[in-house]
Structures are given as C-alpha cells and as structure tokens.
Specification:
Layout (H helix, E strand, L loop, with lengths): L1 E5 L4 H12 L3 E5 L12 H7 L5 E4 L13 H22 L3 E4 L3 H4 L4 E3 L3 E3 L10
Parallel strand pairs: 1-2, 1-3, 3-4
Antiparallel strand pairs: 5-6
C-alpha cells in the first residue's frame, strides 16, 4: 500500500514511516521540513502528493503554542486549516483511507489544576482503555 505521511520528517511521522517500510508498504513523506513547498495548507501541492496514494497518515502539525498566545493564529492555520485542506483534497482525489493521530500537543499533557484536588495528573492508561 502507498501511504502519504504528512509530517513524515517529524518525531511521530518518522516512526510511522519506519513502521510502514518494515511492513512492506511504500511511505511517501510530505513534510515542510523536508521540502518547503510541502505545506498541508497548499491545496495544489497536497492534491499532487495524493496522486497514486492508497491512504494517508496525517501527522503534520505545529507543535505547541510556543511562548505566548500570539502564536495562536499560526498554530490554528497549520493544524486546523492544514487538516481541512488535506481532507478536501482527499475527497477531491478519491483517497478514502485516513489515520489521524496527535500527540499531547493536540490534547494537552493531561495535568490540570482542580480547586478541590489541587494539581491532578492522569496515570498511565491500561491497554483495555486504548
């Protein structure tokens, strides 16, 4: 299977590429770090990258909010708009298989301050929970 891996040069994406290769699949890396034109916000390059692809593993994202909230517009542009552009291109090109995953950057680290319990950190999840 030929799989487009957005963010394929990043931490999670590079491991996905290795796993796909190890299992006999053909990963296609699409990452702005590897090629500046490989930006998931660019509809034409995303559409071109989907040519001949059977599935997509979407890992492209801007990590964190950086130093302050002023990074929010860029963060939302790369993560939310980029995902919308990718999904639109997939619909236009007939690519129907998608694996979408995110790190704690998407969900937060899970540590929260509770007025009643103080700082709360979740413990490890059981395999059955996953």
């Amino acid at each position: 299977m030929r799989v487009l891996v957005t963010g394929g040069a990043g931490f999670i994406g590079s491991h996905v590429v290795e796993a796909l290769t190890a299992h006999g699949h053909e990963p296609v890396v699409y990452d702005v770090r590897a090629a500046p034109e490989a930006d998931v916000r660019n509809p034409s390059t995303v559409r071109d990258a989907l040519s001949g692809v059977d599935a997509v593993c979407h890992q492209a994202a801007m990590v964190g909010l950086g130093v302050g909230f002023r990074d929010a517009a860029e963060y939302v542009s790369r993560n939310d708009l980029g995902t919308a552009v990718l999904l639109t291109a997939m619909a236009d090109t007939g690519v129907r298989r998608l694996v979408l995953a995110g790190s704690m950057v998407v969900y937060g680290e899970g540590r929260y301050a509770c007025a009643r319990h103080g700082v709360v950190r979740p413990g490890p999840r059981a395999v059955a929970d996953l």
